[in-house]
Amino acid sequence: MxxxxxxxxxxxxxxxxxxxxxxxVMGVAPASLHMSFVEIGDLTPFSQDLEAxxxxxxxxxxxxxxxxxxxxFATPEYNRSIPGVLKNAIDxxxxxxxxxxxxxxxxxxxxxxxxxxxxxxxxxxxxxVLAYLDMPTMGQPEAYIGGxxxxxxxxxxxxxxxxxxxxxxxxxxxxxxxDTHVKA
Length: 184
Hints:
Elements: E1 3-9, H1 17-28, E2 33-37, H2 56-65, E3 70-75, H3 84-94, E4 107-112, H4 120-132, E5 144-145, H5 161-181
Parallel strand pairs: 1-2, 1-3, 3-4, 4-5
């Protein structure tokens, strides 16, 4: 069964390593996952004061997330947690209270960082948030990608075939996870 998947990257940097990582996953994903980026850089910062008349960026974002079957988050780690822009997007999608666009959507998280822990802190903080939002989060394989600064060639392709092989297994597991959790 084919599923539309939103891919949300927690980094806004033009040459983001985590965007490259997400593209690599998209490139090896099974044909059953129709993955596309949902951008978060133009979202107005969340304020409950704006809920009565939400900014157009919020409305458009929520409308992009509502129909998808699942979500792939690719995030760096900022100060042992998730980037503020990612938390902002999650908050916008979760409101108004009782109308979250996230509930029940299966999710996978891949985090990349320069050190050996590969964004472990961000990955686990994000898991905490998603648990509250009732998003079944894939547990295995975990994907903490260290050494991300040296991972890509000048064209944005992953240099190490073993990393590509791991990402393919990750994507296959996510496809199975989505199949298991999507409501018919």
